[in-house]
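lol so apparently i was supposed to do this last week
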Amino acid sequence: MTGKTPFSIEFFPPQTPAGVDKLRTVRGKLAELRPEFFSVTYGAGGSTRERTFETVFEIQRDGLEAAPHLSCVGSTRDSIREILAEYRQAGIGRIVALRGDLPSGVQDPGEFRYANELVEFIRGETGDTFRIEVAAYPEYHPQARSPLDDLTAFKRKIDAGANAAITQYFYNLDAYLHFVDACRKLGIDAPIVPGIMPVVSFSKLARFSDACGAEIPRWMRRKLEAYGDDTDSIKAFGLDVVTELCEKLIASGVPGLHFYSMNQAGPTTAIVERLGLAG
Ligand code: FAD
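anyway here it is w/ flavin-adenine dinucleotide bound
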């Protein structure tokens, strides 16, 4: 591959005015790295609707490309139609289309059960207005009945009109390479961009990984546990491990990297700079 590997950066919409100010500063710093786009998550059932809009539109007003996430579970067709109209009018050109997760205790999935139905709906309503990215799971989605079922579900999203995928984060390179290989054998030729999670805190990462089914390899877990409260060592170790993972991914020819920034500038900046990807 020639040229620098493109990369994108993900934020979640802040909950407080202080969080909004902080994200503005973080975004300013990360913008200097020249990512391809910033994406902004969206709470299932529309729980962050206004905050996602505000964050997305602010990024766009600053002249940068913003890709809102849109999750469909717990939503009606009318509510999704309204959101698509807002984004279309605002000139948004890219959407990350997801199912999302119902909050515990909520039973009613609304009018969409799976993300492929959302992709199909977006294409039906808006044609080629949006580039659509979907989620993919190198270590397989925790609710999937089998790896093959999950691959088939992923293929349905691509067949419904998604252009590309961003993966759940992983620390095991082989999981990603095997997944891409399995996809190609099934005839899925869309770009599959690895999701990259910098390591900044062991307890948060462990909680997160348990919930989303991403594995922290035992050797990493043991080392991170052993650092205890020594956050500097955790960060230094995390930076080395994740940079090396990215280097190997780039060497394997990945179409891009997507950083889960957790609304922090430091960890993503350090990795991008070490990789020499800053624009
Ligand atoms: P789907 O592709 O619909 O798959 C969900 C599960 O259902 C899988 O186990 C799949 O195998 C199975 N499945 C699919 N179709 C069928 C079928 N027809 N029959 C039986 N089983 C089926 N969540 C948010 O709430 N907001 C966000 O902004 C957000 N952003 C994300 C960004 C990325 C890059 C990733 C990787 C995840 C993100 N998530 C987000 C989390 C995501 O919503 C959850 O992982 C969710 O559980 C699955 O969403 P999905 O779009 O992958 O669902």
